[in-house]
Design goal:
The protein is an alpha/beta fold. 40% of the residues lie in helices and 13% in strands. Helix 2 (53-61) packs across helix 5.
C-alpha cells in the first residue's frame, strides 16, 4: 500500500483537515484500498489531543467526519513508514528535511500545495488558521479540497512511476 503523510506544526488544524479530506476523496475515487493516509506535527506538544474544535466544526459543516483524529508527532520513523511526505508550509518542510535519516529520504518530501493548480512559486503554503476566525478555516478547507483533487489525479503516477 502506498502511504502518504501530511505534516503541519501541531497536527491539530491543517494536516488533520487534509488527512480527513484526503481519506474521504480516496474513498470516493475507489483508491482507499491502495493508499493509506496519516498526519502529524513537527512539534509534539499536542500529541494525543483531538483536532482543534474550529477545524472540526468547519469539516463537519462540509459533511466530513473529524472525530477519529488524534494528534501525532513527526519523527524520523515516518520516513520508513511513508512513501510521500507533504508539508503544509516552508517551516514544516525545513523541519522535516532536517529529520531525514539520509539525503535520499529527502526526496519523499514535497509541499502539499505542489498538487494545487492555483499554487505559484510565491504562494505554495497552506496558511495556519490558528490565530484567525472561522473564515480562515473555511479558506484553508477550500485550499485543501482543491489541492486534494490535484493529488488524487496524480495518485496513479505516484503509485506506479514511469
Amino acid at each position: 500500500m502506498y502511504a502518504i503523510a501530511l505534516v503541519c506544526l501541531g497536527n491539530i488544524c491543517r494536516s488533520p483537515m487534509a488527512h480527513v479530506v484526503l481519506e474521504a476523496r480516496l474513498h470516493d475515487a475507489g483508491l482507499d484500498d491502495q493508499v493509506a493516509v496519516a498526519s502529524s506535527g513537527t512539534g509534539g506538544w499536542h500529541t494525543g489531543e483531538a483536532m482543534d474544535s474550529r477545524a472540526a466544526k468547519v469539516l463537519s459543516g462540509h459533511s466530513y467526519d473529524p472525530s477519529r483524529h488524534v494528534a501525532e508527532h513527526f519523527t524520523t520513523d515516518w520516513y520508513a513508514e511513508h512513501d510521500l511526505i507533504l508539508a503544509m508550509d516552508d517551516s514544516n518542510y525545513a523541519d522535516i528535511i532536517d529529520l531525514a535519516p539520509t539525503v535520499a529520504e529527502q526526496s519523499k518530501v514535497r509541499m502539499f500545495r505542489d498538487f494545487d493548480p492555483e499554487a505559484t512559486a510565491g504562494d505554495n503554503e497552506v496558511p495556519d488558521p490558528w490565530y484567525g476566525g472561522r473564515e480562515g478555516f473555511e479558506r484553508v478547507l477550500a485550499m485543501i479540497e482543491r489541492t486534494t483533487d490535484g493529488l488524487i489525479a496524480q495518485i496513479p503516477d505516484l503509485i506506479n512511476p514511469a
